[in-house]
Amino acid sequence: MIMDLLRTYLNEHSAKKDPVLDWLERETHYRCVHPRMLGGEPLGSLLTMLVKMIRPQNILEIGTFTGYSAISMARGLSEEGRIDTIEIFDEHNDLIIEAFRRSGMEERITLHTADALEEIPKMHRQGYVCQMAFIDGNKREYCDYYRLVKQVLEPGGYIVADNVLWDGKVADPTCKDPQTEGLRAYNKLVFEDQEVSSVLLPLGDGLSICRKDGLASDNPTR
């Protein structure tokens, strides 16, 4: 009971109402089989703030779902900023495109309907680089995503990963399902990576934030 009250209090005091995101949350619950996959608040507001702080020119997102996090990040972009978001399934494309249009961010967000494990290497070969990445795809593949993202992430860039506590299952040694094991492996990989600085936060279902160490490039948006 206390936790429910606290959660409501946090939401009421960390995010101002956004009509488009409110609409998208309602539509997601109405039209999607697994609406719980939507990040919602306060994660959306935190992503907006992180983008304003980091000021990336390019953001790479893995796992669009219905577009809530992409729109949230786009709200924090500079005029030159762009987002490439990769979603393996096309079943929600109509809703995603409508949400992007309603948000006014459709010119800043490019939707790739593809497998991120195949699409990111293609982007890398084409010279793509980013200064921020948000990972929210298949939990079993987080480690693979991480290794690929590091190849296109500039020094000084940030990787944010959602759901890394997985309802607390990562701390329960009796939980051996592939998703939990994948997230445990991800948290261990990031923690032991000497090339990044990282922090694990109990926000929502768990949030991992790491910085690829080194000097940031002379990006005009920084």
Q: Could you characterize the architecture of this molecule?
A:
The chain has 222 residues and is an alpha/beta fold. Strand 1, helix 4 and strand 2 form a beta-alpha-beta unit. Helix 6 runs parallel beside helix 7. The chain is globular.
List keywords for this structure.
alpha/beta, Rossmann fold, globular
In short:
This protein has 222 residues and is of the alpha/beta class. It contains 8 helices and 7 strands.
Summarize model confidence as the mean pLDDT. 92
Level-2 CATH architecture: 3-Layer(aba) Sandwich
Residues in helix, %: 40-55%
Could you give a short account of the major beta sheet? 7 strands, mixed
Low-confidence stretches at least 5 residues in length (pLDDT < 50)?
none
For the biggest β-sheet, the strand order reads: 3-2-1-4-5-7-6
Q: Write down how many β-strands occur, each being a DSSP E stretch of 2 or more residues.
A: 7
Q: What percent of residues are in strands?
A: 15-25%
Shape field: globular
What is the string of SSEs from the N terminus onward?
HHHEHEHEHEHEHEE
CA radius of gyration is 17 Å
CATH level-four homologous superfamily name:
Vaccinia Virus protein VP39
The number of helices is 8
Query: What is the CATH C level class, in words?
Result: Alpha Beta
Query: Roughly how many Å apart are the termini?
Result: 43 Å
Number of domains: 1
CATH topology: Rossmann fold
